[in-house]
Amino acid sequence: MSGATATDSTGGSALTPPPGAETPVRHPDAPEPGTPLGSHYEQCFGCGEAQSHGLHLEARAGEGVGVTAEFTVRPAHQGAPGLAHGGVLVSALDETLGSVQWLLRTIAVTGRLETEFVRPVPVGTTLHLRAHCTGVSGRKIYSSAEGRIGSPDGPVAVRARAVFVEVQLEHFTKNGRPEEIKAALDNPDQHKVVRAFEVNP
Ligand SMILES: CCCCCCCCCCCCCCCC(=O)SCCNC(=O)CCNC(=O)[C@H](O)C(C)(C)COP(=O)(O)OP(=O)(O)OC[C@H]1O[C@@H](n2cnc3c(N)ncnc32)[C@H](O)[C@@H]1OP(=O)(O)O
């Protein structure tokens, strides 16, 4: 196996901001550091409070264009006996990285996500995650994240780098299953979330 970095069609590193990328700027109306960001959708597997088997990840605004989050591994999240499933850990990283958009006030979806699994994560562990934006290039938002076991200074269990791609609200309304889209559009709380991302529903 080679340890080569993923490359894009131009041969550059797909997860590193390209030359000329802008330094990310925290939106002036972004929540103060320490503010809980809440859920962007109650049925979200990552952060939704109504999703019984979900991660129930709780993210807060951090300093700069960064966030912190916690997620406690439950029995429903196992892969091997007593250990978190790798895909669940990727979901926690994806959700944390996605939460960075609250600080930029843009809506973006994951285009590419690379994860390094450093240590196994036992059931019952609280994973302390942090993520920050590393650059913006057109619609592409580059970010990185890590998750530590037990405390913000605990041993590193997972690391990730990602590129998100900015989208309009139509990305969801055109592609999502109609019944869930209708329920979301009928929910006043969902409108508040969309406003927090500064997008007209
Ligand atoms: C009523 C309801 C309200 C709901 C309110 C919800 C609000 C808040 C929701 C947040 C939700 C977050 C949840 C967690 C984060 C997920 O998990 S998101 C789910 C997983 N991701 C997806 O499903 C994305 C699926 N992929 C796609 O839809 C499309 O491929 C994409 C990513 C939108 C790109 O398509 P496109 O817009 O046609 O992009 P395109 O114009 O070709 O390219 C634009 C640029 O992006 C680059 N690019 C395109 N694709 C990629 C890629 N895969 N990798 C890297 N670069 C790419 C291109 O190279 C291009 O770069 P430049 O040439 O400009 O330098």
TrEMBL record:
The keyword DNA-binding does not apply. Residues 1-38 are annotated as: Disordered. CDD domains: PaaI_thioesterase. SUPFAM superfamilies: Thioesterase/thiol ester dehydrase-isomerase. It is an enzyme of class 3 (hydrolase). Its main location: membrane. It is a peripheral membrane protein. Gene3D superfamilies: Hotdog Thioesterase. Keywords: Apoptosis, Cell membrane, Cell projection, Cytoplasm, Fatty acid metabolism, Hydrolase, Lipid metabolism, Membrane, Transit peptide. Its EC number is 3.1.2.2. It is found in: Cell projection, Ruffle membrane; Cytoplasm; Membrane. GO terms for biological process: fatty acid metabolic process. PANTHER family: ACYL-COENZYME A THIOESTERASE THEM4. Belongs to the THEM4/THEM5 thioesterase family. This is Acyl-coenzyme A thioesterase THEM4. It comes from Streptantibioticus silvisoli.
